[in-house]
């Protein structure tokens, strides 16, 4: 580890924490119902779609709107993928996408997962990239933020039966947050050298006289929202390791910051909404603590290097699988950010990381993407753990289980446990099926513990709606396309529906002032308890599977054994 590496990590943390407050204020303005500067444009969309912006929805109505909107998104994106060969802006003449791959991709982008069982530059036309994938980068991000708003209203409101209007929430978030910021980011990326063109691919002659085709296209526009919306699906197969997607060190730090900025801002939006901004800071402090633990372990493991290489006289850290332009520190930092935030964009090959570093990236996802998390998903996932933590704290010290003025009762606990348990149930269940079937075992490149890690990572990524790939797994098969499609759909909506049900129940309750019997939920004690509950629950759930994969790998490497 180097001083420069730690400076990079600390500067990154300072940047996104500093941006959290203004982003939180902007999101809070979207969360409310006051008229905004573009109200005429906003109202025009409502008139065209037949939406009454003043008519709010119960949690059931909100949930139906979420499901109808997203199912329509899956169907429409699937149609674009299957009709790609006859649609415009296809200068390379790409044909229709294979049916099961198209279905997997449609669910992937609508659920904000962006898992890619294909190489973008050799599979998708410009029309598909723009009208299909990029559009759903916006809409899936807006859906996550809208659900977070709905859950916030459950805590903030008192004795009401409604939690907002889904159509208003996604419209406001898209118009006022996602579109303008993405536009500015796209301009910045173009200035740094990222392509943005509808022209055909470029045929070039190398210095050695060889012929090479350079893939270009509308890259900057997709890059901007893939990071801001924590989508992660790259225009190119190499994702953010490709120099056209990540041309400079400045572009790299900008991408890392934009992955975290909305997720961090939502915590402070929550604090403002419940009238206690310290609540938002406490949640953000817990997230930053978990993030710092993860990045410290990852950076240490990668900087220490591989003992097997050291025994052969190769000194230094583990450069295998790293982005050589940015080095070990930046690649380790990016890996922890992208798996903590459900982004999935990568600049390194996680399969080539040291086993402990690979464990951190898996564990980030297995916790439910709550360490900053996906836009919206991180906050509503963390609030589920807050409900669990305050209930456990109440049992331990004999105090009333309350959180921000709402009593936590059996209904909230049952729904929280369902939402938290749905991820390990499918991550471990699908991993088990893949580990004992011929079709599943045909996927991993490696054998033994490392091959198991490749399978475990894939289902951790898809169920958690992350989308990053460990590497080494052949996912474009009938078995993995279908299993991962199921994983992504359940991982997204299996958490959203219980979260909305919790919101509806909380909104109907009367807010009560804090008293001597209330457990404090803003200080260091609360942050420590929340972090401990998260690590204990995650550790007890996933330790056996991690022991079969990266932990066994680490013991083997330390002993100088190749498995």
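^ Assign residues to that structure.
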């Amino acid at each position: 580890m180097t001083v420069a590496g730690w400076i990079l990590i600390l500067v990154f943390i300072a940047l996104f924490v500093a941006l959290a407050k203004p982003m939180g204020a902007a999101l809070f303005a979207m969360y409310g119902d006051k008229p905004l500067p573009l109200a005429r444009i906003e109202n025009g969309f409502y008139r065209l779609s037949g939406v009454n912006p003043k008519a709010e929805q119960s949690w059931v109505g909100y949930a139906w709107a979420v499901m109808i909107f997203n199912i329509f998104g899956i169907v429409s994106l699937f149609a674009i993928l299957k009709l790609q060969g006859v649609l415009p802006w296809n200068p390379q003449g790409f044909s229709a996408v294979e049916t099961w791959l198209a279905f997997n991709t449609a669910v992937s982008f609508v659920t904000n997962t962006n898992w890619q069982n294909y190489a973008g530059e050799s599979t998708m036309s410009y029309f598909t990239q723009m009208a299909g994938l990029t559009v759903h980068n916006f809409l899936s991000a807006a859906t996550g933020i809208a659900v977070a708003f709905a859950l916030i209203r459950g805590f903030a409101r008192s004795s009401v039966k409604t939690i907002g209007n889904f159509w208003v929430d996604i419209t406001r978030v898209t118009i006022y947050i996602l579109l303008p910021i993405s536009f500015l980011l796209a301009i910045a990326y173009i200035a740094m050298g990222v392509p943005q063109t509808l022209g055909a691919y470029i045929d070039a002659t190398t210095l050695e006289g060889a012929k090479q085709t350079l893939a270009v296209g509308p890259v900057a526009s997709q890059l901007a929202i893939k990071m801001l919306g924590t989508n992660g699906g790259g225009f190119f197969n190499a994702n953010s390791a490709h120099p056209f997607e990540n041309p400079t060190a400045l572009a790299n730090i900008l991408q890392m910051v934009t992955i975290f900025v909305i997720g961090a801002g939502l915590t402070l939006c929550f604090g403002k909404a419940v009238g206690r901004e310290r609540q938002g800071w406490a949640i953000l402090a817990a997230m930053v603590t978990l993030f710092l633990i993860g990045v410290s372990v990852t950076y240490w493991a990668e900087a220490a290097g591989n003992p097997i290489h050291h025994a052969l006289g190769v000194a230094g850290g583990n450069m295998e699988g790293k982005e050589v332009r940015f080095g070990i520190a930046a690649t380790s930092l990016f890996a922890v950010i992208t798996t903590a935030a459900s982004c999935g964009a990568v600049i390194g090959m996680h399969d080539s990381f040291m086993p402990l570093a690979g464990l951190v990236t898996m564990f980030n996802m297995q916790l439910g993407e709550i360490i900053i998390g996906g836009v919206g998903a991180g906050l509503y996932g963390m609030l589920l753990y807050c409900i669990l933590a305050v209930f456990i704290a109440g049992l331990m010290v004999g105090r009333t289980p309350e959180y921000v003025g709402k009593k936590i009762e059996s209904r909230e606990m049952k729904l929280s446990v369902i939402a938290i348990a749905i991820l390990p149930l499918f991550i471990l269940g699908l991993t088990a099926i893949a580990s004992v079937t011929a079709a599943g075992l045909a996927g991993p490149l490696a054998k033994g513990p490392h091959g198991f890690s490749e399978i475990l990572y894939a289902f951790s990524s898809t169920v958690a709606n992350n989308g990053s790939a460990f590497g080494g797994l052949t996912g474009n098969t009938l078995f993995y396309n279908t299993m991962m499609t199921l994983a992504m759909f359940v991982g997204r909506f299996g958490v959203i529906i219980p979260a909305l049900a919790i919101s509806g129940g909380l909104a109907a309750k009367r807010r009560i002032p804090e008293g001597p019997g209330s457990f404090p939920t803003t200080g260091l004690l609360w942050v420590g308890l929340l972090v401990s509950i998260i690590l204990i629950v995650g550790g007890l759930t996933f330790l056996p599977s991690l022991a079969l994969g990266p932990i066994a790998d680490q013991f083997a490497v330390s002993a100088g054994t190749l498995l």
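The CA atoms of residues 341 and 373 lie 4 Å apart.
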